[in-house]
Specification:
Layout (H helix, E strand, L loop, with lengths): L12 E5 L3 H12 L3 E6 L4 H8 L4 E4 L5 H8 L4 E4 L4 H13 L3 E4 L12 E5 L2 E5 L6 H16 L2 H20 L3 H12 L2 H8 L3 H13 L9 H17 L3
Parallel strand pairs: 1-2, 1-4, 2-3, 4-5
Antiparallel strand pairs: 6-7
Helix pairs in contact: 3-4, 6-7, 6-9, 7-10, 8-9
The structure holds ligand PQ2 and nicotinamide-adenine-dinucleotide.
EC number: 1.3.1.76
Pathway: Porphyrin-containing compound metabolism; siroheme biosynthesis; sirohydrochlorin from precorrin-2: step 1/1
Catalytic activity: precorrin-2 + NAD(+) = sirohydrochlorin + NADH + 2 H(+)
Length: about 240
């Protein structure tokens, strides 16, 4: 079972074996996460060559035809990406990387890949990633579109998002006890007066009222996410899903 994570790869070494279209996409993706990217192949796309020329990545032109070359290429990697069009070479890189204990993203064999690169999107800074783990990429791609459009059209979520960000900043500054903080978030969301202000996009007023309520005291129990979230959904399901 693979689990979803968002990872900052600053300063980590990612070695991509294969300099074609897929290798290029992986280079761009891992660069976004701050990784030091090296692409090893016997041929590269124009874009990869440009990226190397401008110092964003390193490219190493090599015919990887024996184990020693592969070991040399990947020994310093934290993550190895397999993306050549030679099944024999992909299998070789996989077994060596596996023995060396590397994390492997195998773009050519979803089943054995440790890491999957999902379809990804974001609306208003809420990020999401969708994958079928290689089983039905077409369906995952369509699912991403549905999620993205549904969230984009949802003005209620937009307001909740605006409110939550500002409110959380304030709570983290003002309330020292994390246990109380956890209760606080759902305590105000379940308050009908605060929520009606959020619903009508009066974010400043909602914040003012929420702060007042919190300063008067937050219950120590009863607003844990596993209780509060279903209650919230039950109440606002139609408004939330109406735009989907
Ligand atoms: C999101 C995206 C990210 C990215 O690759 O950057 C991505 N695939 C994209 C495109 C794409 N994929 C394929 C084509 C060719 C034609 C077509 O089918 O359209 C194209 C189009 C193109 O290349 O242009 C076919 C294909 N895909 C995989 C295999 C190998 C296998 O099946 O084992 C084969 C060969 C199948 C065969 O041999 O028949 C496997 C994977 N593809 C994944 C992700 C992961 C799980 C996704 C999931 O299932 O949810 C996984 C497991 C790889 C991983 O996790 O590393 C990217 C969106 C690009 C964008 O939109 O910008
Ligand atoms: N995961 C995905 O989303 C996805 C999408 C499309 C294709 N694929 C698969 O990924 C693989 C790569 O696809 P592509 O379109 O980038 O292919 P490509 O033909 O554009 O690139 C292949 C790369 O492998 C290199 N290579 C091959 N043999 C080599 C060797 N002996 N030594 C060094 N380098 C070598 C080539 O130089 C080239 O850079 C294919 O197996 C394809 O089926 C995966």
């Amino acid at each position: 079972m693979r689990i979803p994570l968002y990872i900052d790869l600053s300063g980590r070494n990612v070695v991509i074996v294969g300099g074609g279209k897929v290798g290029e996409r992986r280079a761009l993706k891992f660069l976004e996460a701050g990784a030091k990217v090296k692409v090893v192949a016997n041929d590269f796309t124009e874009k990869l060559k440009e990226m190397a020329q401008s110092g964003k990545i390193v490219i190493e032109k090599k015919d990887l035809d024996n184990d020693i070359e592969v070991i040399r290429a990947i020994k310093d990697a934290d993550i190895v990406v397999i993306a050549t069009n030679s099944k024999k070479l992909n299998d070789k890189v996989f077994s060596i990387a596996q023995v060396l204990g590397k994390f492997i993203n195998d773009a050519t064999d979803a089943q054995r890949s440790h890491i999957h690169v999902p379809f990804e999107g974001s609306v208003d800074g809420i990020r999401f990633a969708v994958t079928s783990e290689g089983a039905a990429g077409v369906a995952a791609h369509i699912a991403l579109y549905v999620i993205e459009e549904c969230l984009r059209r949802n003005s209620l979520l937009h307001s909740i998002n605006q409110f939550s960000r500002l409110f959380k900043e304030w709570v983290k500054r003002e309330i020292k006890d994390p246990k109380v903080r956890f209760q606080t978030y759902w305590y105000v969301m379940l308050d009908p007066d605060v929520f009606n202000l959020i619903k009508s996009s009066q974010i400043d007023k909602a914040l003012e009222l929420a702060k007042l309520k919190v300063l008067k005291g937050v219950p120590e129990k009863g607003y844990e996410p596993d209780k509060a979230f279903p209650k919230f959904i039950q109440q606002w399901k139609d408004e939330l899903l109406g735009s989907c």
